[in-house]
Amino acid sequence: MITRRNLLAVTAGTAAVAAVLPRLAFGQEITEKTVFHDPDAPVLGNPKGDVTVVEFFDYQCPYCKKIHPMLEKVVREDGNVRLVLKDWPVFGGASIFAAQAVLGAAQIGKYEPAMEALMKTTGKLTEEAVEKALTSTGLTMKEIAAAVNKHSTKISGLLDRNYSQALAFNFAGTPSFVIGWTTFAGVLDEKGLKKAIAEARAA
How wide is the angle at C-alpha 87 spanned by C-alphas 97 and 16, nearest 5°? Predict the structure, then answer.
């Protein structure tokens, strides 16, 4: 069942965010900027869209992978949505390995093919399965590893921030969303996603 928690009253303006949203999680301040505009977080859809959809996900989460094509479809058809993807690897070592590898691919301009390859995997991931999926896109693990090592501080910092934010929003697992000023803990179907976007836009 999808649960919702309003972060900001519909009548409040953006200026009110500073009084409502910030909180501390493991010493990190959670703000509008860090949630919606983290410079290291991958953004798909329309970078200048009037509504931001933030998804916290794990490459081993079957529900994340099941709804991913629908999420992309809604964002594409709307045309005015920023989709911010936040890795939250909660299913163990293989999930962390997958997140780091795809974020490494992002550093060499290959985020989308790497992310899509992992989203199409089935079953429990292993490091070998991650490597197989990524190399099927034409990437090599040597170049991915080099990118991860070169940008290790950037990648680990992003994953730490994602983790802190997910806990600050009281999310219990993946997928979880922040759309406009409302959180959605759990799976959204197409109708629910479109409604959430429309409500965020109206607000």
Answer: 155
